[in-house]
Amino acid sequence: MSETTKKHKAEAPAKLKFSIYVCSTSRYQKIRKDQPIEDVSGDLIESFLKKAGHEIVLRRLVPDDKSLIEKCVREVLASPEIDVAVFCGGTGIASSDVTIETVSPFLEKTLPGFGEIFRRLSFDEIGSAAVLSRALAGVAKGKVFFCIPGSPNSVRLCFEKLILPEAAHIVKHARE
Questions:
Q1: Number of domains making up the chain
Q2: Any long-range contacts for 37-44 (C-beta under 8 Å, 24+ apart)?
Q3: Nearest residue to 75 via CA among 37, 123, 21
Q4: Which of 68, 61, 134, 66 is nearest to 102 (CA)?
Q5: Cβ partners under 8 Å of residue 83, min gap 6
Q6: What is the DSSP letter of 33?
Q7: pLDDT along the chain (176 residues), means of 10
Q8: Are 152 and 47 contacting, i.e. CB atoms less than 8 angstroms apart?
Q9: Could you tell me the residue range of the domain that residue 7 belongs to?
Q10: Which of 27, 45, 61, 147 could be bridged to 136 by S-S, CB 3.0 to 4.6 A?
């Protein structure tokens, strides 16, 4: 790591405030019917963040619906309490997967390396199927947005290798 990067990371906030949005129509429909759901990926995200000492401002389950995801993005942008928003799920290539297409127009700058490195790391684990994986990171109004696949393995990879090591560093620069 370069001296400049070390300096920037040292100047970054130690504790961040996160919002978690799990995008899943099937789980959302179960909740609406008062059926029990299992949200392994959402639970995993929460566990990673708490273990790292970050705060979870809110956690919400939303369907794969453009207007509802847009509402969540606007909620993040309007909230002084949120530093980082994670949108988990809805990043695949099915017609119902609209998370990336919905979040990206709100971003002032994107971080293409996030998706590139995620796919490279995924390739090491799952092989050529990694080409189907989509992930996005970017910034808007001093906040950081991550759109990640919904599988628990993808969540683990994103948090261990990318989000936890770099989120504070990205926040620091997004606020300059």
A1: 1
A2: 37/61, 40/152, 41/88, 41/89, 41/150, 41/151, 41/152, 41/154, 41/155, 42/88, 44/152, 44/155, 44/156, 44/159
A3: 21
A4: 66
A5: 13, 16, 17, 18, 143, 144, 167, 171
A6: T
A7: 82 92 93 91 98 98 97 98 98 97 98 98 96 97 98 98 98 96
A8: no
A9: 3-174
A10: 147
pTM of the model: 0.96
Helix (H, G, I), strand (E, B) or coil at 42: helix
Residue 119 φ/ψ, nearest 5 degrees: -65, -35
pLDDT in tens, 34-85: 999 999 999 999 999 999 999 999 999 999 999 999 999 999 999 999 999 9
Beta bridge partners of 62: 23
Task: Read off the DSSP letter of residue 82.
Answer: -
DSSP-based three-state secondary structure for 68:
helix
Nearest to 19 by CA among 66, 68, 61: 61
**Integer CA distances (angstroms), 98 to 66, 74, 155, in order:** 6, 16, 18
At 24 the three-state DSSP class reads coil
What is the Cα–Cα distance from 93 to 104, expressed in whole angstroms? 16
For residues 145 and 136, what is the distance between their CA atoms, to the nearest angstrom?
Answer: 8
CATH number at residue 39: 3.40.980.10
